[in-house]
Amino acid sequence: MITWFKRKRRAEMDEACSESDGRAAGEDAVLPETAAAPGEYDPGAAKDAGVLPRGSGSRSDAFPDVVPDDGDPEKEVPVAEEGAGERGELLRRGHFFPKLRERLQKTRERLADRVDRLVLGKKHIDDELLEELEEILITSDLGVSATRFLLEQVSERVRRNELKDPARLQEELRSAVARLLQVPAPPWDPAAARPFVILVVGVNGVGKTTTIGKLAHRLKGDGFQPLLVAGDTFRAAAIEQLVLWGERIGAPVVRQKHGADPSAVAFDALEAATSRDVDVVILDTAGRMHTKVNLMEEIKKVHRVIQKKMPGAPHEILLVLDATTGQNALSQARLFKDTVGVTGLVLTKLDGTAKGGVIVPVCHELQLPVRFIGVGEKVEDLRPFDPGEFARAIV
Ligand SMILES: Nc1nc2c(ncn2[C@@H]2O[C@H](COP(=O)(O)OP(=O)(O)OP(=O)(O)O)[C@@H](O)[C@H]2O)c(=O)[nH]1
Description:
Elements: H1 2-21, H2 25-28, H3 43-48, E1 65-67, H4 73-76, H5 85-103, H6 105-119, H7 127-159, H8 169-181, E2 196-201, H9 208-221, E3 226-229, H10 236-249, E4 253-255, H11 262-276, E5 280-283, H12 293-309, E6 316-322, H13 328-340, E7 344-348, H14 359-366, E8 370-374, E9 382-384, H15 387-394
Parallel strand pairs: 2-5, 2-6, 3-4, 3-5, 6-7, 7-8
Antiparallel strand pairs: 1-4, 8-9
Helix pairs in contact: 1-12, 5-15, 6-7, 7-8, 7-14, 8-15, 9-10, 11-12, 13-14
The structure holds guanosine-5'-triphosphate.
């Protein structure tokens, strides 16, 4: 039975991959059958060390281990007292705004505090003041194009005599930023398909795995059963990191050995998702430099395999960007968008950086919606993005 399943799976994978890249999946879908080399990820050792839960790693390594959903979220991760659903979300947001402002303090200092100083004691909004405003916006990571767009909006109001008082400039800017961040896009709706498949991509160390853990926790709070997929088979510790998140929040994790083909992991995970009847599948992927062509080809292959295995999926391709990288986030977003067709963004590490303004040019130039923001390392530090709230917190 297992041999038949292996053959069927290999044939389906080959079919999914050969259409567009001419390579059979088997060529690089090496599913290691041997013990891990010294220093590599070893499921047995990890299990002994208590990293993996009981029962995992006992089947053929050619098949994914599904770590059972035996975590107790109540123990380690207190569920938000406001509860799930729309009302809970509104309450959480109300509580969260002061915290968001606090976390975005450095970005605000760089932008809003300088605008405050600029208008202090000024009687009129003139060209000189607008030029200085331009400089503040550009040096606050808003980029040339978004700055020009925002200045045009402000200048237009000045021309029409609708804005005269410099003291109201901040307010005007805030509305313009909020409008710019409001990118037209389908709403975030994990109930739109079952399973709802989310592919998470991004460069190294931006916070993909952490975001997945936090996102799965949110989804559980909203009544969805998530399945996590350890598609980052390149960095051994990433698999263990995701397994730990799974245990912590009480979500099953599909994983294979370190070095396995990520497309094969994705393929098996979708099989597991169907048979386990889960609501949401979240696939982690290895961090890759957006400039490395072969790695970008690999992610395209993962994408193709998902599409082939489950038409309509992935339903969301989330690009995780690290806010501390400033303008570099923009070039990452461009390349990932062109390669895999990103549908939404997650901006992480907004806490403690002065470069949070980068969100503005990314939204403006790429017209991609920000789905979530990461404002810390704790499980509750992932928030749905609200353009108005964000604009208020930085301007
Ligand atoms: N301060 C802060 N740290 C974060 C946030 N999100 C993630 N991190 C930290 O960033 C570091 C990298 O996170 P990972 O989740 O391992 O990043 P990754 O993208 O999966 O890394 P690779 O697999 O190497 O590509 C970890 O120390 C996280 O705790 C955030 O919103 N704020």
